[in-house]
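Readers of this paper often ask what the protein records in our data store actually look like. Such a record has a labelled line for the sequence and another for the backbone structure tokens. Nothing more is needed to write down the fold, since each code stands for a local backbone conformation. The remainder of this section carries one protein's record, kept here as part of the documentation.
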Amino acid sequence: MAKIEIESAFVEPWTKNTEDHPSWGIKTAEPHSKKNDQGSYDTIGRTFRTIKVSRASGIDLSEFRKGDRVHVWGTEATETREFEGKKYYDLIVWANRVERAEGKGGSGNDQGSTGAPARQGGPRDEPWAANTQGAQASAQDVWTPGNYADESTPF
């Protein structure tokens, strides 16, 4: 499992037969673009993922519909399944936070967010980042100009 942040992905239908998805999961497509000779961008590929949330997270994904642009933070893993003797690999993201992302045009029409309240602040809420102010102050004291090298350093 790897931590991941998806800055912009579009919500896709849950299945071929229904666009509605459960409150615990959505399907997304993340487009990949390349600049063409005319200066505009062409989509050259897409990465499809299933975004899932645990019941304990308090996140309700039912507010998102096909075509919505979302921003997702979480942990990504590959799940393997077999159907009729053929193996399939799915990218699954267990989300800590999901928000509606603003479109490239900056229209400002996208509003609202859904996420676990304890995770809203991002990395500074992680246990390993609990006391960053003291660490930054001591790092500044150590790395003042002239204190980072001495005469015995071979390089």
Q: What stands out?
A: Helices lie at 132-142.
